[in-house]
Amino acid sequence: MKKSIKILLCTMLTAGSMLAGCSSQQDKTTVELAEVTRSIFYAPLYAAMEKGFFEEENIDIELTTTWGGDKTMTALLSEGADIALVGAETSIYVNSQDPAEPIINFAMLTRTDGTFLMAREEPDNFQWEDLNDSVFLGQRKGGMPQMTGEYVLKHNDIDPHEDLELIQNVDFANIANSFASGTGDYVQLFEPQATKFEQEGIAHIAASFGEESGPIPYTVFMAEQSFFENDEETALRFTRALYRAQQWIYEASPEEIGTVLAPYFDDTPESTIADAAVRYRSQRSYAETPLLPEEAWNNLQNIMEEAGELPERSDYDKYVDTTIAETVTEK
């Protein structure tokens, strides 16, 4: 197995009281987790780590940021990670290529798109038709942010390839800087950049792509099928810790959220972290349970299909395992 198991051994030379304490401990499991990027959009994951929810399940998380969907899936398929946190569309791409073993989605982290339409000029009663004849700095072609963005534009009677000038040749990491330097009238951005731009007066939020596109399994924890066959108990413990964090993020104060997430965002003030997380929470971008609904799975594929990026329809029952999420959420 790729997963490293660290057994907590007890010495037989120890007296009875120490033996009793050792017997109550489970094996400590190290889970290698690859996240596609570092984002406040993933707040429940960092909360689970910082609040000790994984530790209470006797799990050590070794978190690696892989910076890109392709790199994340390469890590998963090459035994560089046990679990990947990435857009569900990547599992559809990989599974359509008949991998050695299928990629299974088992716990949903975010349930909407996480981007916002930012306008250079503060909009007065924004209408989608305002984008006509504008310059729109979008996301990478084939990526979920761009597919969702185009889906929303089309459903608001805007043809992204005819009614405006769509720029897609800027790397993800440079999109915000490119807009700040003067490129485009509108831009599609994640938090906390959206909040930072508003605070600095660079741009203003005109609309939320997450609210417009509806529920989709935007970011999901997934693993190869053998992970569940070899150690389903670890998957259950992992998901149970995640579920606690999902509940916590909807109950915590903005100040507490900012403090808990701060270690993961060194260059961002706690108040900005809190504002960004609360914005996501207010539109229910964070999944409230790890369960991935079939309706959301189908909505994802509809968006991909409309963008011309869906290789084939992906069977929900085959590539989504709901039993783990159902088990941990049972009262």
UniProtKB/TrEMBL annotation:
Keywords: Signal. Residues 1-20 form the signal peptide. GO terms for cellular component: periplasmic space. It holds the Pfam family NMT1_2. It is found in: Periplasm. Gene3D superfamilies: Periplasmic binding protein-like II. Belongs to the bacterial solute-binding protein SsuA/TauA family. This is NitT/TauT family transport system substrate-binding protein. It comes from Salibacterium qingdaonense.
